[in-house]
């Protein structure tokens, strides 16, 4: 996939509209998912994606080489989304929308029990995630949902390596504390 990305990037820089479309198709879902984690406003997220690709087309002759097309696109999108959110309302907090649940295929009753447990766990995790700072949620999302390495997260979030490590580490510790507290609290009831 990365070889294709670099090929599309080079073609885009040379003025190939099909390469822009290919990059859009590759990154649309990633950007939607990422954007909806920062703001639950689908319209702003979609507008920011459109704005990003329009800007890429307009600036195609000024685009340089990049070590990671993915990081370049995600970080550019992040900056554009934050600007668009702030334009809409300077007091608007970036928020998180939903958590993902796991699928399973055992028997009907087992499936219902697993689904109910998954929903409860997902809800607990979602509530715990809301107690993290926006930066912590973003770092956790990039690390575990997008599978990015710390160096890549540094580029996307424009932070130093140790800051990203600290964000992820403190977020995990905080999540563990919140979830353990919830489990102990609910077991006593």
Give your account of this protein's structure:
- About 10% of the residues have low confidence.
- The protein contains eight helices and no strands.
- Helix 1 packs across helix 2 and helix 2 packs antiparallel against helix 3.
- The protein is an all-alpha fold and 189 residues long.
- The chain has two domains: 87 residues, Rna Polymerase Sigma Factor, Chain: A (Orthogonal Bundle); 81 residues, Winged helix-like DNA-binding domain superfamily/Winged helix DNA-binding domain (Arc Repressor Mutant, subunit A).
Q: Which range does the strand content fall in? A: under 5%
CATH class of the largest domain equals: Mainly Alpha
- The stretches of 5 or more residues where confidence is low (pLDDT under 50) are 92-110
Order of helices and strands: HHHHHHHH
Helix content: over 70%
Q: How many β-strand runs?
A: 0
Structural class label = mainly alpha
Whole-number count of domains:
2
| CATH fold descriptor of the largest domain | Rna Polymerase Sigma Factor, Chain: A
Oligomer: single chain
Q: Kindly report the average pLDDT value.
A: 79
| Cα-to-Cα separation, first versus last residue | 51 Å
Radius of gyration: 19 Å
The CATH architecture designation of the largest domain is Orthogonal Bundle
Outline, from the CA principal axes?
Answer: elongated
Number of helices, where a helix is a run of at least 4 consecutive DSSP H or I residues? 8
């Amino acid at each position: 996939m990365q070889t294709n990305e670099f090929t599309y990037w080079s073609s885009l820089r040379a003025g190939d509209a099909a390469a822009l479309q290919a990059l859009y198709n590759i990154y649309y879902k990633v950007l939607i998912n990422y954007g909806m984690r920062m703001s639950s406003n689908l319209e702003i997220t979609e507008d920011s994606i459109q704005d990003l690709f329009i800007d890429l087309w307009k600036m195609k002759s000024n685009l340089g080489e990049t070590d990671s097309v993915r990081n370049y696109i995600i970080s550019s999108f992040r900056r554009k989304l934050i600007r668009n959110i702030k334009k809409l309302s300077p007091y608007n907090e970036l928020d998180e929308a939903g958590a993902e649940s796991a699928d399973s295929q055992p028997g009907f009753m087992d499936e219902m029990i697993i689904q109910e447990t998954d929903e409860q766990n997902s809800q607990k995790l979602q509530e715990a995630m809301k107690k993290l700072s926006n930066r912590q949620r973003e770092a956790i999302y990039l690390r575990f949902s997008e599978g990015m390495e710390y160096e890549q997260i540094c580029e996307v979030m424009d932070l130093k390596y140790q800051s990203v490590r600290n964000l992820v580490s403190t977020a995990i510790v905080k999540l563990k504390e919140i979830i353990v507290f919830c489990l102990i609290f609910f077991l006593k009831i």
